[in-house]
């Protein structure tokens, strides 16, 4: 039976445990370039014991960013900075992962702490946002949306392929496509955002065509030995939007095209949510477990899995294969070590680099003064 700290192998890649740091946009890039901040952020989490470490969502074109402060993989000049990240993550014992994205009609924003307003296309830090249909998201996203033509869709898929090639050159060993959270892929999948009458709109199969063609484009350049995964907006929490049964069908089609793992999240194609489960522990687990059983594909998910006992339980029960942690990883760069102590792991410091582990195991002083609370095993949440 697996547990949170058991190795996990997918294709030719083995993770040292089942704990992944989710990609999180940090708004610290300039011209899409990674810098010392990203080196610190990602390197410390790799050193802290995470098995899989994602860089933030990397835009496949400049106008696919959330803001001008977001990371990119749309120019060769961005490869060296990404390569530094990959080298450090590997040196600290983790696997480096890249998430490729395009924000679609939710791009061209100010930073959230600057108000997060969407900027018009004629603003120096803005651009023309795009989507499957000429429908603004609503709320703060009120500027006109350009409906993509077939030729423009194909150009975007070529950008996915070029970005995947750059990711390979930089040293990433795990690749994810971001098709959730109201971004471009999510909007193609949702009937709330997608009102096309051509082969990209209408039925679930048609609305998943954008995803399938993106997989085909990336698979042409991404090696089979490395995992290809997708973060999918699997439910809009609105009766007019994506239903989870849609995700079951779509992921089964993606599996046939070479998808190796489904990373399930929400669609967020509207703010009109008819249920709001965000305070519930592990509220995506039931959906993820169902998809894992019915489609027969490995599954990861996030959302309120930051309690060690809960994260361990969903792995032991084989409900999911990987635990994705976002804010818990931001709050605690050594979350895996803390979790190991909480769960009475026999050697929690085996999760950090060997030299660090040696010093921590040979601490000759009061045990509570090492900087971690004394651990006591806790029962898994029910």
Summed up:
This protein is 32% helix and 13% strand.
Tell me what the structure shows.
- This protein is 32% helix and 13% strand.
- The protein is an alpha/beta fold and 382 residues long.
- It has a single domain (8-370), classed as TIM Barrel, CATH 3.20.20.70.
- Helix 1 runs parallel beside helix 2.
- The model has no long low-confidence stretch (mean pLDDT 94).
What is the residue-averaged pLDDT? 94
CATH class: Alpha Beta
Low-confidence stretches: none
Tell me the number of helical segments per DSSP (H or I, 4 or more residues long).
12
Between the first and last Cα atoms, what is the distance in angstroms? 19 Å
Task: Tell me the Rg in angstroms.
Answer: 20 Å
The spatial strand order of the largest sheet comes to 3-4-6-9-10-11-12-13
CATH topology: TIM Barrel
Oligomer: single chain
Keywords:
single chain; alpha/beta; TIM Barrel; two-stranded antiparallel sheet; 12 helices; 13 strands
Topology readout:
Elements: E1 8-10, E2 13-15, E3 19-21, H1 36-47, E4 52-54, E5 58-59, H2 79-91, E6 95-101, E7 129-131, E8 145-147, H3 150-170, E9 174-179, H4 184-189, H5 204-207, H6 209-219, E10 228-233, H7 244-256, E11 261-265, H8 285-295, E12 299-301, H9 308-316, E13 322-325, H10 327-331, H11 335-342, H12 354-361
Parallel strand pairs: 3-4, 3-13, 4-6, 5-6, 6-9, 7-8, 9-10, 10-11, 11-12, 12-13
Antiparallel strand pairs: 1-2
Helix pairs in contact: 1-2, 2-3, 3-6, 7-8
């Amino acid at each position: 039976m697996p547990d949170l700290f058991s190795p996990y192998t997918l294709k030719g890649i083995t993770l040292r445990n089942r704990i992944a740091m989710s990609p999180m946009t940090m708004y610290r890039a300039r011209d899409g370039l990674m810098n010392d901040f990203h080196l610190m952020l990602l390197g410390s989490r790799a050193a802290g014991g995470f098995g899989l470490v994602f860089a933030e969502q990397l835009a496949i074109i400049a106008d696919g960013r959330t803001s001008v402060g977001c990371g990119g993989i749309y120019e060769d000049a961005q490869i060296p900075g990404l390569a530094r990240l990959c080298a450090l993550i590997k040196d600290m014992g983790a696997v480096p992962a890249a998430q490729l994205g395009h924000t679609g009609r939710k791009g061209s924003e100010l930073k959230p702490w600057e108000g997060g307003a969407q900027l018009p296309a004629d603003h120096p830090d803005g651009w023309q946002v795009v989507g499957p249909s000429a429908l603004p998201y609503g709320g703060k996203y009120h500027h006109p949306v350009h409906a993509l033509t077939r030729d423009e869709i194909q150009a975007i898929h070529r950008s996915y392929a070029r970005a995947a090639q750059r990711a390979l050159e930089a040293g990433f060993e795990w690749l994810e496509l971001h098709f959730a959270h109201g971004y471009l892929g999510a909007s193609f999948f949702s009937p709330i955002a997608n009102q096309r009458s051509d082969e990209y709109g209408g039925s679930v199969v048609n609305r998943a065509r954008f995803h399938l063609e993106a997989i085909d484009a990336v698979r042409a350049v991404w090696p089979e030995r490395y995992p290809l995964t997708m973060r999918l907006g699997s439910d809009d929490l609105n009766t007019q939007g994506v239903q989870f049964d849609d995700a079951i069908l779509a992921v089964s089609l993606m599996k046939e095209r070479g998808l190796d793992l489904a990373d399930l999240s929400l669609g967020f194609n509207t703010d009109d949510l008819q249920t709001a489960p965000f305070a519930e522990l592990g509220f995506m687990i039931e959906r993820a477990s169902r998809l894992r059983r019915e489609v027969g594909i490995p599954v990861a998910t996030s959302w309120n899995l930051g309690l060690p006992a809960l994260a361990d339980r969903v792995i032991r029960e084989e409900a999911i294969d990987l635990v994705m942690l976002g804010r818990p990883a931001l709050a605690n760069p050594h979350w895996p070590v803390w979790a190991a102590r909480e769960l009475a792991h026999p050697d929690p410091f085996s999760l950090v680099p060997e030299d660090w582990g040696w010093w921590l195991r040979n601490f000759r002083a009061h045990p509570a003064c090492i900087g971690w609370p004394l651990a006591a095993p806790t029962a898994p949440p029910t």
